[in-house]
Design brief:
By secondary structure, the protein is mainly alpha-helical. It has a domain of 46 residues. Helices cover 50% and strands 0% of the residues. The protein contains 4 helices and no strands. 0% of the residues are buried.
Length: 159
């Protein structure tokens, strides 16, 4: 019997369903384990089993009985001026602007690489999709220029 044509299945949707099923299974396992009695942890030991294994630091320049010299601590000055307000950080502002322009990074870089390379069966590669979008933009831009040129030509001719 002839049936209606079925929509082809998307491999990403099928994989998403599999992962959601596994996530539900793991959540139910975690809930089941949380309901059980927790096993008390063994008490922590104050000293290690082998006292010879404790780390010790030695310095040849320090004689016994004298405390080690204090190292100078370098601190970065806070980005606050004399009046108590924040200094304007031009480099930081530029980085924030670039992060907003770039958008969020991919949560799954491996998936992004697979999409870009076209290695997922049934999906077109991202470079092909970009080329189609670029060609569509160029064609529509040329049509817009022709329309504007035609309007300008008729306006100047009828003047």
């Amino acid at each position: 019997m002839w049936g209606f044509p079925k929509k082809p299945t998307n491999p990403l949707t099928a994989r998403e369903r599999e992962l959601e099923a596994e996530l539900k299974r793991l959540k139910s396992k975690v809930e089941r384990l949380a309901r059980e009695e927790p096993v008390p942890a063994p008490p922590a030991r104050e000293t290690p089993l082998n006292p010879a294994a404790t780390p010790r630091t030695f310095s040849r320049s320090i004689s016994p009985g004298k405390p080690p010299p204090k190292e100078p601590v370098t601190t970065v000055p806070a980005p606050i001026n004399e009046l108590g307000s924040r200094k304007y950080d031009l480099l930081g502002a530029w980085r924030r602007l670039m992060n907003q322009v770039r958008g969020p990074t991919a949560n799954n870089p491996r998936m992004a690489r697979m999409l870009a390379a076209g290695s997922i069966h049934g999906l077109r590669p991202l470079r092909y999709e970009r080329r189609v979008a670029r060609n569509r933009f160029i064609a529509l831009f040329v049509i817009l220029l022709l329309i504007l040129w035609g309007l300008g030509y008729t306006y100047m001719r009828n003047r």
